[in-house]
């Protein structure tokens, strides 16, 4: 898109392109410095040359979504004029890479953690690279699924154990009477807990358990992790 050209005479009257003057653009296809030659017509015979900057288009539609518990996927809209995109941490301390695609996945992150990234476009022509402005996006990694063990060491009682992890607020324990049946929440344990004892069960019955962690991120707002693989136990 060309920059707007507005010309007035000494009396302040607006002049009309094609009637009072003509415009000739050059060097205006690629990023860099474009040129406009304004040539008067009729009562206006002067000629003036003006220059304008052409920059790379900015990011459009930038978004971020967690990919599991240690990765975040960035996405944006395609622009055919762009050579590629550069991805950085929000503080510019890390350059994660560049791509000509419309997605980029950043791996090796910590679970249950806020991350901010910034992305910018660039166009390379004739060995010269021009950059667009940075756009910033924030995302929160997920919570991994605990690995649990389930035992029945006492009559009418089961014990579920897992290894506590950091960056969580607690754990939810669910129970069912079949592997694919309806699971009901039977307990909520604090982040320091590594196990739970479930009592008052039927001797000889088989129960299935699964556990997930959660993180409190605001007033009555929670982020839930992935469920563990269900484990079964027959009660003594």
Protein model, in words:
By secondary structure, this protein is an all-beta fold. Helices cover 0% and strands 50% of the residues. It has strands at residues 21-26, 32-40, 47-54, 63-66, 72-75, 84-89, 95-99, 103-106, 114-125, 128-131, 135-140, 149-154, 157-161, 170-176, 184-190, 195-199, 206-218, 221-224, 231-234. The strands form five sheets. Strands 6, 7, 9, 10 and 11 form a five-stranded antiparallel beta sheet that branches. Strands 14, 15, 17, 18 and 19 form a five-stranded antiparallel beta sheet that branches. It has a three-stranded antiparallel beta sheet with strand order 1-2-3, with no helix packed on it. The model has no long low-confidence stretch (mean pLDDT 90).
Quick structural gist:
With 236 residues, this protein is mainly beta. The chain is built from no helices and 19 strands.
